[in-house]
Amino acid sequence: MRAMRPRFDAGDKVRVLDLGKPGHVRTPFYVRHHVGTVLHRAGMFLNPEDLAIGRVCGPVVPLYRVGFAMTELWPDYDGPADDMVAIEIYDHWLAAAEPPPAP
Amino acid sequence: MTHDGHEHDHDHGHDHGHEPHEPLVVEDEAGNIEGQIRVAALQALLVARNLVAPQEVRREIERIEAPGVHLGAKIVARAWTDAAYKARLLDNGKSAAAELGIGVGEAQLIVVENDEATHNLVCCTLCSCYPRSILGQPPAWYISKAYRARVVREPRAVLKEFGLELPVAMRVVVHDSNADMRYLVLPQRPEGTQAMDEAALAELVTRDCMIGVAVLPAA
């Protein structure tokens, strides 16, 4: 069984993909396309998209906890800039985000 | 019978445009019970064919409903009174719970600590994931679409409706239990409880403060 290695680690900037997959996906729409920061690796888990259709033999995929500023998710958010959502995202839903352009 | 977090209702209308599928709804928020009727029919068939005994179903329901807030309260009170335990709890919630004889059936338990600078709040936007092994079944509002949708959108407004107005200097972190982790908030130990022992402290700890929609008042 191939074992996927985690591509990201704490501090990495990541963008959530919109894979357009039907079925039992665990990546909510409200974080798709948004850029967050990996808080930490959360382990390796069977992919719920496979489990939901009876594919219980793996492979396991890396899971991360990713933090998103509320102001990133909701442009009209009127609370403090450091308010945050922390959410769990599987590796295949993430891409490395471009570093912000130098000023 | 579903007992962990991954029961959910496939009614999010934005997800469609693919092949139609049978909804997995057991009971929707309008109170329609087609799902219940189906579950009852399935159970009757399983019993009639001797695949399941009625008492097995009851035992399983009892097992699911046995955990309660007292388990979470025990964990919190120990963390308040034992700094080394607290460190282990924050490092690995599942193994620290096991030290107290509390088995966490969910995949992992992440304990998030409230302090002067940060207030943590737990939700499950996709369904109803909740640390059931240590808090029992979630309150109705926790699984309501209103809470699930609003808490990641306007957490301070939601908290205010719970009677908790946080200073702007305090950061709010909302934890969405959308996959394999479950979350428990470690509330701040209330002022004026220095003389209390662990058992007395455990009596103070409420469900809502371990979800993060409340804080504990000074004793």
From TrEMBL, chain B:
A Pfam family hit: NHase_alpha
One function term, GO molecular function aspect: catalytic activity
Keywords for this protein: Metal-binding
Domain Nitrile hydratase alpha/Thiocyanate hydrolase gamma: 36-214
InterPro entries linked to this entry: CN_Hdrase_a/SCN_Hdrase_g_sf, CN_Hdrtase_a/SCN_Hdrlase_g
Keyword check for Lyase: no
Protein name: Nitrile hydratase subunit alpha
Coiled coil region boundaries: none
Annotated region described as Disordered, given as residue ranges: 1-22
UniProt keyword Metal-binding, yes or no: yes
